[in-house]
Specification:
mainly alpha
């Protein structure tokens, strides 16, 4: 029995493998592009909001651009240098943290293990110094990525609607209708996610910074930056932030460590049960297990940037499946 496989099949397999290879190789660049699209959609939604209030695009667009440029300048020239500087200064507080850890350990076994770890493992401090020595290069790369993200998202905001219409014109009328419906349904979800995440991350950073400053905890700006990042990750993010904050607080006292831990836990409860439901409503209603698994998978593949991008993808999946895969998906199952 002779089996003949059409040349078209080989071509399709080759193209599928090529596309998969390009996605793997360019995954970080594609991720930046996707985040830029989300930001551009949010800026466009802001312009629509102004239009509903009677503000013309000639006035609202320059205002939005100026505010966006201001945020970019603040991040690049104020927040990032402050965080890097404080991280470089942390080496001077290791001795204080070590002293607090040893004196506050009530059990002899714990004290012995801490002494062995801090005194018998100088390579830990050496590794930390080596890491901080390369922090400048990593920061420069991060600033470059932020700059690319800023430029692409700003371009998409200004020229995105025209580009979308040009791309849409290459499809059949039925596909154009589905594309319009998809954009119409996912844009509020994307916008809600960006506004919501920016709000909660900013508030978490402010609470952490104020608490650390009052308690005179070193590297308050760095802790605030970590709070904004860890706020993206449910449960695990809180644990990582508490560990980081309490370790630095030990450079002051054990009471400072306990105090900032209690403040962070109280804020997390407020955010989880009051702030987040109020901001997102039902537009980003996701199962906690789905969120956690998605974040772990995205973080493993693409780091923090993947965690930022995965939640709106998961939240819009039911809409995309309903419009493009012809399945009737129940919202409560997502």
């Amino acid at each position: 029995m002779k089996i003949e496989i059409p040349f078209k099949t080989y071509t399709g397999i080759f193209l599928a493998l090529l596309i998969s290879f390009l996605i793997i190789v360019l995954r970080f660049e594609l991720l930046l592009l996707f985040i830029a699209i989300i930001i551009a959609m949010t800026l466009y939604s802001t312009e629509i909001f102004f239009a509903k209030k009677g503000v013309s695009a000639k006035i609202s667009t320059p205002i939005i651009i100026c505010l966006y440029i201001g945020v970019f300048i603040a991040i690049v020239f104020w927040i990032i240098p402050a965080v890097v500087g404080q991280m470089m200064d942390l080496m001077g507080h290791f001795t204080q943290i070590k002293s607090q850890l040893v004196t506050k350990a009530s059990a002899n076994v714990i004290e012995k293990n801490i002494r062995e770890l801090m005194n018998g493992s100088p390579e830990i401090l050496a590794s930390a110094k080596n890491y901080l020595a390369t922090l400048g290069k990593q920061t420069l790369g991060g600033v470059l990525d932020i700059g690319i993200l800023f430029i692409v998202s700003l371009y998409m905001f200004l020229d995105g609607p025209r580009t979308y219409k040009w791309c849409r014109a290459h499809f059949s009328p039925s596909v154009q209708m589905r594309l319009n419906k998809t954009v119409e349904e996912i844009q509020p979800i994307m916008t809600a996610y960006v506004f919501g995440q920016v709000t909660t991350s900013t508030l978490a950073a402010v609470v952490t910074f104020i608490t650390a400053s009052i308690l005179h905890i070193p590297a308050a700006m760095t802790l605030a930056f970590l709070a904004a990042i860890f706020d993206i990750i449910p449960a695990i993010g809180l644990i990582m932030l508490i560990i980081s904050a309490s370790m630095l607080a030990l450079a002051v006292s054990g009471k400072a460590a306990v105090t900032i831990t209690l403040v962070l836990v109280a804020y997390n409860l407020f955010e989880s049960y009051i702030l987040t439901p109020y901001i997102y409503g039902r537009r980003m209603k996701l199962s906690p297990l789905v969120v956690l698994l998605s974040l772990i998978l995205a973080g493993t593949i693409a780091g923090v940037a993947g965690m930022v991008a995965i939640l709106p993808i998961v939240a819009t999946y039911s809409t995309i499946e309903k419009l493009w895969m012809h399945f009737d998906v129940n919202e409560e199952s997502v």
